[in-house]
Amino acid sequence: MPEDLTLEAAERIVAAAKKKAAEIKTRMDIAVVDAGGNLKAFVRMDGAWLGSIDIALRKARTARWFDMNTGEIGKLSQPGGPLYQIEHSNGGLITFPGGVPLKNAKGEVVGAIGVSGSTVENDHTVAAAGAAALGK
């Protein structure tokens, strides 16, 4: 069983995501969940949309529960796809970009990050920057 995500690591991930969001001049809601999909760290940048709080958390949980980027799940959940309408399961999933699993040095998933507050491309960019900070 993989180790759980530490608070120190979660805070480092949030800091890296905040830094990337500032670099691309956007305001984000950033959620980090642990291996069980439980909230470990969260930040709502000043001026970030209130509606994106829940979306960020759902993106993080979706990425953890399925251990893949939420944008990839979105591709599979289009009409006629093998996961069509999966977003209606688990109390509601988010299947567009912005959720990224967090993997330790062994490649084991130890949590996930979810980001919301801009375009889905920006959301994914910020989430990926946060995820990259896990190994640092």
In short:
Helices cover 38% and strands 18% of the residues. It is α+β, with helices and mostly antiparallel strands.
What does this structure look like?
The chain is α+β, with helices and mostly antiparallel strands and 136 residues long. The chain has one domain (7-135): Haem-degrading domain (Beta-Lactamase). The protein contains four helices and four strands, in the order H-E-E-H-H-E-E-H. The chain has a four-stranded antiparallel β-sheet. A hairpin with a 4-residue loop joins strand 1 and strand 2. Helix 1 (7-23) crosses helix 4.
CATH domain class name: Alpha Beta
Class by alpha and beta content: alpha+beta
Mind telling me the C-alpha Rg?
14 Å
Q: H/E order of the elements?
A: HEEHHEEH
Largest sheet, strands/sense/barrel: 4 strands, antiparallel
Our count of domains comes out at: 1
List keywords for this structure.
136 residues, Beta-Lactamase, 4-stranded antiparallel beta sheet, 4 helices
Could you give the topology of this structure?
Blueprint lengths: L6 H17 L5 E6 L4 E6 L7 H15 L3 H7 L22 E5 L5 E8 L3 H13 L4
Antiparallel strand pairs: 1-2, 1-4, 3-4
